[in-house]
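Sample entry (406 residues):
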Amino acid sequence: MARRILSTIQKIAREAERQQAQQQREAVKAQKATERAAREAARVAEADHKRQVAAAKATHVEARQAEVEGLNVALEETYAAIDGLLATTLDVDHYFDLHTMHHELEHPPFEHTELERPTQKPIVIQDPPEPIYEEPAPTKVLFGKKKKHEAAIAAAQTAHALARAEWQSKLEESAARRKTLHEDFKRAEEKRLEQLEMEKSRYAEECTAREQEIAEYNASIDSLISNLGYGASDAVEAYISIVFSHSHYPDHFPVSHEVEFDPSTAELHLRVSIPSPSELETIKVYRYVNKNDEITSTVLSQKAQKDRYASAIHRVVLRSIHEIFEADRRGLIKTVSLEVGAETADPATGKMGFIPLAAVAAKREVFLGIDLSAVVPKSTLDLLGAVVSKNPFELIAADATGVRRS
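Predicted structure, serialized as tokens:
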């Protein structure tokens, strides 16, 4: 008996040990599975992070390269605009019809139309209905019928008298309210009419002033047109100034003009101010350096800068003369004498002033015989006897003393 019990206990113990070992093995297996899953998740996360970093870097690089491309396109447009200073004006008719400067008279609408609407009339206040006296019907009691009927009549009369008194009071209140509303309406309407009259008077004054202003302006245009027909100096100068105001140069290459006309010789003297070399773009190209994530630039060679600046001067000279003669359909101007230069500090004195970089005098019949669409600007200036600075990029002034004049 004792042996069976001992055997059973040992069997139970061995089973418990076996189960415990099995549990331990399963725990170790689960732990290893968990660790493997964690390592795989970490690997996937790291790979995903690397892909995201790579994608972000690629996007950034593309953005920077696009930025560089935009900068280079802007550079190309800038230089193309300077190189095309003459070509872009040849397809434009520079004649300006002064009649288009007349102003049409258009009065603005009257602003205070709300004052033209009559004031809303007050609401109609109805009087309360007058109380009606009703005689009490005789009572049907056996005893004291007369007295009770008389008492009922007295009570009805008293109630009617009170009702009439209240009604009379309400009549007076209604009358008072009607009077107040009528007076308020009258004041509001009088104020409206007063303000309307004031605003209409102001509007009429403004219209009259505008009519006078436009009439005077149109008269000045008519006078300009008339005087231009006679070749008056101030009219010719004003007309050519208007023509130049409609001559569009690039924003990065602003140009200004000063004109003076001598009717005795039919010669127009013109001074054209262009930007100095230091005001112009000098970058040749932009590049993106991936290693440093920087945008770098290469500067144009001195020769390229000098050639472009000198070429711009040649083109501005020819463009200015072309626009004048093309705009002057009457042939009032026989000769154009001009200087092109820069308003800047003189390298020799340090003082601000106009430095002439090219000068020429061109006769109408000679200049109109030139096909500007097929010329080399420098050769055309040589043909016209122009003098040009030996080194305009260094702001060396041109010697204009030898320029022939009419």
